[in-house]
């Protein structure tokens, strides 16, 4: 690469002692002194105004109207970052897998959506087909009859900790392959890299009591590592970890791993999301 | 002969003063994020010499329960930090300023002499061009740290999409540690930097605002009474 060199004067200054700490007062009233004063004054005025502008600009941003728990400009940047991530996203990039022996039980963080006792026998997965009105019901046995997928990945909490967990369940893509209810034309997902063109853009997942709810973009929802999960670390899910069926998506922070799924629906608009309403990033993707 | 010597080009002064608040706010919001999982410490086994950070630290600066806000500031300001740093590096490359900033074969020895001088163990400081060897090393290292912060940050921000990076850094947890240690590095840099600026005095500080410095230039040099140029390749 060619680099432009600055003009070298005929007689450059030779190396000399650092001026730091020397008495370098200029003769008062001299041309040098006047020039120094003029440039100093001008630069400090410009710098002061720039600093003031920066402080006022930042205060302005912080006092813009609130958009789901954060000032609107910050929400806009989060959403722009999310769109950028979505554009870069590839279904073929997988969360790294670990040996099953490293799996540990994750900490239980909060119980929103889990406060009513679980009646496992009465539980049904409710799914509202995209563009349809008739809600479909699925028993756990019907879910378990679908191809089983198991992997051991790192669950990352938005708080900053992570834990390796072994999950087993049904790929959401496999579920939509068997039950083609996420596209308007009723086409199945045979290959998550080539989804039907009229697939719903978003998926909403809500607990039975509607106290906890998450939204996913469809490309994350049909990623090969997104599961309707019924087993953790080789055991059926316990109620505190989301029995009978929970969402697992190593493509997102733990906040999107909704426990005890009640209803799944497909939407054109970005679905409501419990933590995104409290100032967090809606996408929260990895 | 006393002269006003051009020291810092206007662009570099802007990059410097934009970076100062941006990096400060990055560190501040980073602490809000770190608080939510503040597990780092200096120690071994059950012995902890220092915990990052004591509760009193968070309480004093009101840093608790601000994870969402911290992430939002962090993921907005990261763009400014990145753009400003990139422009700075491009500017130094294309303007030729890099020749004052990159360490050369004299820099290590010179940095040692400067350190001895600054500690009062050596009478004279080595003659300098714009920056002495210690400065060349420090100002180049801090740019590499900036690159490191961007890479480790990206590795923990999108650990699946940039899995090659995250794995290359030793995994998600390791990248988070590295991101934190680099931040400690900036704080250390800041402390030394400000101490040196205070020591060097007004003439030096003013040059980062107004661009010029009053210097007592050997008379064999440039004859212009007002503004003189330096030769970045002159042997110091």
Shape of chain A: elongated
Helix-strand category of chain B: mainly alpha
Q: What name is given to the CATH topology of the domain at 92-278 in chain A? A: Sulfite Oxidase, Chain A, domain 2
Strand-residue proportion of chain A:
15-25%
Distance between the ends of chain A: 36 Å
Integer-rounded radius of gyration of chain A: 29 Å
Mean pLDDT across the residues of chain B is 92
Order of helices and strands of chain B: EHEEHHHHHHHHEE
CATH architecture of chain B: Up-down Bundle
The tally of strands of chain A reads 10
- The helix tally of chain B amounts to 9
Report helical residue fraction of chain B.
55-70%
Text of the CATH class of chain B: Mainly Alpha
Largest sheet of chain A: 5 strands, mixed
**Fourth-tier CATH superfamily name of chain B:** Transmembrane di-heme cytochromes, Chain C
Q: Total domains of chain B, how many?
A: 1
The helicity of chain A comes to 10-25%
Q: Helix segment count of chain A?
A: 5
Low-pLDDT stretches of chain A: 1-10
As a percent range, the share of strand residues of chain B is 5-15%
């Amino acid at each position: 690469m060619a680099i432009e060199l600055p003009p070298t004067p005929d007689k450059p200054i030779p190396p000399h002692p650092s001026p730091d700490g020397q008495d370098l007062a200029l003769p008062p009233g001299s041309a040098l002194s006047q020039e120094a004063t003029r440039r100093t004054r001008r630069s400090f005025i410009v710098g002061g105004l720039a600093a003031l502008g920066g402080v006022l600009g930042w205060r302005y941003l912080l006092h813009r109207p609130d958009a789901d728990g954060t000032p609107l400009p910050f929400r806009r940047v989060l959403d722009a970052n999310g769109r950028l991530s979505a554009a870069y996203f590839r279904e073929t990039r997988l969360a790294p897998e670990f040996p099953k022996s490293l799996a540990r039980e994750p900490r239980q963080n909060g119980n929103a959506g889990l406060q009513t006792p679980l009646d496992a026998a009465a539980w049904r997965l409710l799914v509202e087909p995209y563009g349809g009105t008739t809600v479909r019901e699925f028993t756990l046995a019907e879910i378990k009859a679908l191809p089983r997928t198991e992997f051991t990945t790192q669950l990352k909490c938005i708080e900053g900790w992570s834990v390796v967990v072994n999950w087993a369940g049904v790929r959401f893509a496999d579920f939509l392959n068997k039950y083609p209810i996420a596209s308007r034309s009723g086409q199945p997902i045979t290959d998550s890299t080539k989804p039907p063109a009229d697939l719903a853009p978003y998926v909403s997942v809500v607990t039975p009591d509607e106290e906890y709810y998450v939204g996913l973009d469809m490309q994350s929802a049909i990623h090969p590592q997104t599961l309707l999960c019924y087993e953790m670390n080789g055991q059926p899910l316990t109620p505190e970890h989301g029995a009978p069926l929970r969402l697992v998506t190593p493509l997102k922070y733990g906040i999107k791993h909704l426990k005890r799924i009640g209803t799944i629906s497909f939407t054109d608009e970005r679905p409501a999301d419990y933590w995104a309403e409290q100032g967090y990033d809606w996408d929260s993707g990895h | 002969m006393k002269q006003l010597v051009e020291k810092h080009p206007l662009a570099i002064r802007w990059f410097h003063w934009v970076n100062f608040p941006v990096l400060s706010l990055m560190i501040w919001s980073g602490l809000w994020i770190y608080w939510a999982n503040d597990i780092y410490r200096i120690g071994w086994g059950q012995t902890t010499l220092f915990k990052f950070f004591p509760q009193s630290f968070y309480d004093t600066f009101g840093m608790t329960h601000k994870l969402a806000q911290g992430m939002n500031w962090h993921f907005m300001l990261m763009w400014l930090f990145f753009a400003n740093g990139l422009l700075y590096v491009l500017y130094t490359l294309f303007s030729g300023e890099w020749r004052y900033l990159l360490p050369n074969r004299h820099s290590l020895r010179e940095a040692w002499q400067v350190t001895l001088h600054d500690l009062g163990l050596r009478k004279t400081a080595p003659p300098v061009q714009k920056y002495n060897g210690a400065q060349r090393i420090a100002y180049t290292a801090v740019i590499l740290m900036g690159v490191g912060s961007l890479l480790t940050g990206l590795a923990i921000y999108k650990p699946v999409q940039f899995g090659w990076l995250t794995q290359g850094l030793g995994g998600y947890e390791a990248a988070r540690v590295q991101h934190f240690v680099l931040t400690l590095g900036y704080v250390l840099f800041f402390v030394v930097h400000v101490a040196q600026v205070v020591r060097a005095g007004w003439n030096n500080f003013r040059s980062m605002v107004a661009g010029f410095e009053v210097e007592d230039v050997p008379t064999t040099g440039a004859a212009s009474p007002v503004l003189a140029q330096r030769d970045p390749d002159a042997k110091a």
